[in-house]
Amino acid sequence: MRIINRKPTRLAAIALGLLPFVAIVVTYAVASHYRRLDNPADKLLPSLSDMAATFGRMAFEPDRRSGDLLLWVDTLDSLQRLGLGMGVSVIFALLIGIAIGFVPHMRSAFAPFIATFSLIPPITILPILFIIFGLGETSRIMLIALGTAPVMTRSVAQAVMDIPRELIIKAETLGASVWQMTVRVVLPQVLPKLITAIRLGLVPAWIFLISAEAIASTSGLGYRIFLVRRYLAMDVILPYVAWITLLAFLIDRALLLVSRRVFRWHHLQGDSL
Ramachandran region of residue 47, left (φ > 0), alpha (ψ -120 to 50) or beta? Predict the structure, then answer.
């Protein structure tokens, strides 16, 4: 049997999935060990134990100045900004995307504008957002929304246009109104693809979030990373990067699980990444 037709067992799949992560950790541990042999006070590659101790301190020991558990305060603030920004994007993408994909006049009016706006690097308009909305939360949330909404809108519009025309014709034959077709035909077909668009949109959303927090913020994961960089505190930066990666992974897996549970028919053709 050819290798492309062989599927690993569940245990083998888990082992293969963990292998790259284990390799990275082992490689780092070896590199850190040999680097610290020459200079025990080296800050570039702190040991795994030092990073674990720092992570534990920031997670479970109150800060001397504020009395807060810094890791959880930063995480809560960042997730709140991320959630609000993505929430605005989802609402915009759902409403405008369905309108563009389903109504030809709306497509002619807004599709070229959305396509053009999606090509603007969102980080370049961050100074404009700071000028308009100030240095508060609104500018950070708007950066996430503006950075993700256009691409998600195009994905939703394309999903609507991919709906078989036969379904629309059948609904029209049965006397359904435009609103009824939108709710009963278009929306159920689009929602699972909207979740996929959200999962893809979360990648740039994290980038915009960290960038905005690094430039103008007094809390958040990005703020903490860029605050300690001046001290070369890699024992803080690397665990925070790993923590952000873990959060992003868990959110992505949660969305995939929701999609599989709620829209099982959408995943019948094969596995989803």
Answer: beta
Closest CA to 96 of 164, 182, 156: 156
Summarised one tens digit per residue, pLDDT across range 193-218 is 999 999 999 999 999 999 888 887 88
Q: Residue 271 — very low, low, confident or very high, per pLDDT cuts 50/70/90? A: low
Q: Quick one: 28 and 151 in the same domain?
A: no
Taking every pair of C-alpha atoms in the chain, what is the biggest distance, in angstroms?
80
Domain that holds residue 11: 1-45
Report the residue count for the chain: 273
pLDDT at 1 over 80: no
Query: Closest Cα partner for 235 from 4, 3, 50, 74?
Result: 50
Structure token digits, residue 24: 């990275």
For residue 64, which phi and psi values (nearest 5 degrees)? -65, -35
Tell me which residue of 120, 82, 64, 89 sits closest to 217, measured CA to CA: 82
Residues 219 and 98 in one domain: yes
> The whole model's pTM is what?
0.86
Neighbours of 42 (CB within 10 A): 15
The DSSP secondary-structure symbol of 163 reads S
pLDDT at 272: 62
